[in-house]
Amino acid sequence: MEVDLLNNNDLKNYLKKQYKLNKKENYKKIILNTKDGKHIWKEKIFQSLITIILTLLGTTCIAFAGNAIYNEYIKEKNEIKSSSLRDNNTGIIDSDWDLTQTDMVSFSTENLTLYYKIITNTEDYLVYKNRINELPEITQDTFNNNFLIIITSSSAYDLYNRDIYIDSIYADDNVTYINFAQNNPIDYTKSNNTWYAIVDNSQLRDTINIKINYTNIINNSNITQLADISTDYSIEKAIEDNCFVISNNIIISPNPSYLDEFLEHSNSENNFIRIYQKTNNFVEIFDIIYKDNFYFINRRLLSNTTIKKSVFKYIEKGNIHSNGLVRYYFTNTLSTETEYTEAFPFLSFYTK
Fold this sequence. Notes:
The chain is α+β, with helices and mostly antiparallel strands. Helix content is 19%, strand content 34%.
């Protein structure tokens, strides 16, 4: 059957029919049949038209992923806070007991190392159910048509990774894609580190790909985005752009108090600073914004475009040494609040 994409009524009726017939076939027939027709529009126009029509038909569960159209195949999902996959209920990590090392598959995203397990039968399910009581009750009847995926991380407590959740799971011919998202606004009291989902078997492939889509906090439209800065970005240009500039631990910026002034007034919402630090031929740039009582940091080596992101409660200024050197630290606990502070030095320069 050929479908004339130029005839809106014909296309709408065809899609409505195929929607009922092909819910579990991922709309492959729609794509194949329309592309076999003699009237073929460009891909973007084609996708846009189908999106509009399906929205009018009320199929709000449909979404685009690249060139594929897919249903939401997740039957149930949730996230919890638990260390029971790694320890033996004593709080002590036991290598023989640690399922992330003995049974789960490791997967590294840009900012987080995850471990996952695909479960397709009750025998494997009971192993994990004995560890995670919060898992739902699942019978073999459920596994006849679905699989269970469990994902965990030992470092999800980091502030940057708080309040993430499984957003969608779908597959192409070779890969199952698992997309995480982060709530906006972010609830930093949520430190869940284990996620699970029951998913239709039609979406299970041998290869798993996991991606985390973080909420974009630093989005200053008044400056060049960090990833777009050219690799020959110079000290002179950084000064012109009002960066706080340091070269070989010497302040080059016209205002040597710029960073301290930023910290003193960082309780002003959306307060922003860009720091350009050069050591010999090594250049690192920091974008820092203070928002919702946290410091959000994007950092990049000028030699590549990779952006490292983190979140901290404080930026603390260390003591000034006798030679005038002072260091600044990212931390979540001030040294005045506790005897032990886990702090990460990121900047040092001479004050005299």
